[in-house]
């Protein structure tokens, strides 16, 4: 779908890392918003769609931006038939429609001519219960460098042009990891699980860290004991609601962070194109600068 997230630039911020980048390196702050947290610490920001208020999940684990049918009705949007497009998630595959938005804004930043997929997201009951109207997915987020300041409940979007190196907007110990993208164009980083390196998908829309049974089999990892009675029904795009069970592992290492005896959810079905999902139980205790421009992730412990 055509996306034009052309925010008006509000603040010019030159990061220290640009000192070693070409003279043409520029970094401009496109938008900033307060983060609210719903459910199991899923980040949400306030936006406006055709000047109608909307609450959107910031979801690096979803390929596309989407809004609910209820949001389409409230904003009186024009629907688009997308016969060749299917959405895929942990709940399987589903057909989607599209909606044309004339004006889309976050804070004081306004974009024009923006298209959303239309989906029931996690199910109508869940959407109503937590009060969400849609999500911002990677199709949109990948156009920016993003400062996820989870401890301060704030998110900032940056336009980056001509830079080969950037530095995060903070000081202190920082993990620096290479950022790659999987077959669904979702951001991934290398982590070590029980001394096996695995590509983990950064998913700000997932409540917890999840691994697929197929990934464990491929790596030859046998988890430890199951945690009795601790199960989760996984919800996402698609009609299925697979059951996951928590198991103990020996350790997981993510940059400078090491966690011994972690409890990780094993999905009851394969995760499409994904081995390990790194969810909010890790992410929201950290500050992340996700540089799509330089394919680098910076992580600082929020504690």
Number of strands: 27
Spans with pLDDT under 50 lasting ≥5 residues? Answer: 4-19
Mean pLDDT equals: 84
How does the overall form come out from the CA principal axes?
globular
Q: Tell me the structural class.
A: mainly beta
Tally of DSSP helical segments: 5
How far the N terminus sits from the C terminus, by CA atoms, comes to: 40 Å
As a percent range, the share of strand residues is: over 45%
The Cα radius of gyration reads: 19 Å
Largest sheet: 10 strands, mixed
What fraction, in percent, of the residue positions are helical? under 10%
Helices and strands in order, then pairings?
Layout: E1 11-12, E2 26-34, E3 36-38, E4 42-49, E5 52-58, E6 66-67, H1 69-75, E7 78-80, E8 86-89, E9 92-95, E10 97-106, E11 109-118, H2 124-130, E12 134-136, H3 138-141, E13 145-149, E14 154-161, E15 175-178, E16 180-181, E17 187-193, E18 196-202, E19 210-212, H4 213-219, E20 226-233, E21 243-248, E22 251-254, E23 257-260, E24 263-267, E25 276-278, H5 280-283, E26 286-291, E27 296-301
């Amino acid at each position: 779908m055509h996306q034009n997230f052309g925010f008006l630039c509000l603040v010019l911020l030159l990061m220290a890392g640009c000192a070693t980048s070409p003279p043409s390196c520029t970094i401009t702050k496109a938008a900033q918003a307060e983060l609210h947290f719903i459910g199991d610490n899923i980040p949400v920001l306030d936006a406006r769609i055709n000047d109608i208020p909307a609450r959107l999940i910031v979801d690096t684990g979803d390929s596309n931006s989407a809004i609910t049918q209820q949001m389409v009705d409230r904003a009186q949007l024009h629907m688009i038939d997308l016969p060749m497009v299917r959405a895929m998630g942990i709940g399987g595959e589903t057909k989607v429609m599209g909606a044309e938005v004339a004006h889309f804004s976050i804070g004081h930043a306004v974009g024009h001519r923006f298209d959303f997929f239309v989906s029931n997201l996690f199910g109508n009951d869940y959407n109503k219960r937590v009060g969400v109207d849609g999500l911002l997915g990677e199709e949109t987020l990948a156009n920016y460098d993003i400062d996820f300041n989870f401890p301060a409940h704030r998110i900032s979007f940056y336009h980056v042009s001509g830079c080969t190196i950037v530095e995060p907007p903070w000081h202190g110990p920082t993990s620096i990891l290479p950022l790659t993208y999987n077959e669904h164009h979702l951001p991934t980083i290398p982590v070590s699980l029980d001394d096996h390196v695995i590509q983990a998908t950064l998913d700000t829309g997932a409540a917890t860290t999840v691994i697929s049974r197929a990934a464990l089999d491929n790596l030859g990892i046998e988890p430890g004991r199951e945690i009795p009675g601790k199960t989760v029904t996984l919800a996402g795009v698609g009609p299925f609601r697979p059951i996951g069970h928590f198991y103990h592992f020996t350790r997981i290492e993510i940059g400078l962070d090491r966690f011994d005896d972690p409890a990780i959810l094993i999905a009851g079905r394969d995760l499409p194109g994904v081995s390990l999902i790194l969810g909010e139980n890790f992410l929201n205790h950290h500050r992340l600068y996700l540089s799509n421009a330089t394919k680098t992730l910076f992580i600082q412990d929020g504690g």
